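Quarterly update, task 2.4: 5'-O-[(L-methionyl)-sulphamoyl]adenosine-bound model.
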Amino acid sequence: MAKFYVTTPIYYVNDVPHIGHSYTTIAADVLARLHRAQGDDVFFLTGTDEHGAKVAESAAKAGKSPQEFCDDVSGRFRDVWRLLNISNDKFIRTTDPAHVSAVTKMLTELNDRGYIYKGEYTGLYCVGCERYYSRDELVDGKCPLHNKEPEIVSEETYFFKLSEFNDRILAAIESGELSIEPEERKNEITSFLRLEGLTDLAMSRSKVEWGIPLPFDPSHTAYVWVDALFNYVSGVGWPADMAMFNRFWPADVELMAKDILRVHATIWPAMLLALELPLPKRLVIHGFFTVDGHKMSKSLGNAIDPAALAMTYTADGIRYFILREFGFGQDGDFSVSRLNERYNKDLANDLGNLVSRVLAMVEKYQNGVVAAAAADEEIDRSLRDTVLNAYRSRDTALERVAFNDALAAVWQAVSEANRYVDATAPWALDKAGETKRLAVVLYNCVEAVHHISALIDPFLPETAAKTRAMLGIAATGPAVWGQTRDKAKVTKGESLFPRL
Ligand code: MSP
């Protein structure tokens, strides 16, 4: 049995969960569900990033202690993920005692191994990002994300010897030991490492109280990124449960948007190399959603709330739309009118209608009972081949994390099944009294629905479960034609996607 460990970034607890966070989380969920269905030993981690000056500020504004504030707001992420049927195995919070003690131990080790030294740092600091910027990273002298001039800050700080790892990281990325996808993102990082190179990292703050104290100097707290990145290993048991850690680490896929690739491809592997831990296998980077061309954020007031959308479009509707509409590496503009179109066309017309008309016909012409039959005419075999081929196309597309191609492959099977119904015209067969051919055709239709429910399962888990219930089965069979039992009883349930 293979293992599969997939992660999302841990989201800033200070933000509200929006459709951008949902994109990464849903993508990770699809991979986790696919691998579970394939029998792999899966661990799927997500969570919230809770330390730093910004969180303490928000807590103070809300008249709460930082911990109380985090306890209240981190629940919002968990609630949204539940609503979207996210099947994470663990929800990590950087204020979890196990994470705090793991980070403490990690810091001690880095210090003992000689990778930390004390110095003075002066730089351009953006409070919004909680990070320093180099001049050339600024746009018109302003932080590109917050559009605000950073402050010049000088402080005593501990440095992590990041620069020592430049060449080893570059070699790991170039050899594919640490794969960065898509290719253009990999090139962005390798040229950065080759042309600019890493400088040592100011990894502690004396002014930020809401953080994890350095074990060797508790008047400093760990830089929030050093703390946060470590969630990927503390979340699978390092160092408290090494059996679990060895079972799942290294991560097979770490998903994120392009905004945080740089830290994940520099500080993160350097920390692991310093600790002599294996590197994650793949960093898979997706694009950014904008709304009407603007970045989405709480402060801009344009953050799209996935919970509100799910009320109208269902969780599966949202899951389908965001993975189908955009290529995973590309940026995309989120539009409710496109969501509406896709819901009505792909989900209500194509998928929902297929399932409901197939089952309605079995009820109408055969009292809901299916008779076993082989796919024996050309048109039957063509349906069978298209449907079964969709598994391979879906899985190879998902291997490339091309979620939109995977869904397109599944929808080819859906369209083919709809064409089959139109071409074989069971209503005409019934009228003509051709009961034998009618039984074969309806068997093939039900069999196609069976496989389509398996094909959509990682993407649309609720719809897949409803379809299985209509087929009277608890689980779908393997990707082999003939899963529908002789005399199987099916029932046409509620419409899967009522038209809006
Ligand atoms: N807390 C850090 C991550 C630490 S991981 C060790 C952070 N959090 S965040 O809340 O800002 O989330 C960043 C991630 O959320 C992005 O990398 C991406 O996965 C997702 N997205 C947030 N906004 C997004 C869009 N508008 N579009 C697509 N994804 C975006 O950074």
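Highlight for this quarter: The radius of gyration is 26 Å.
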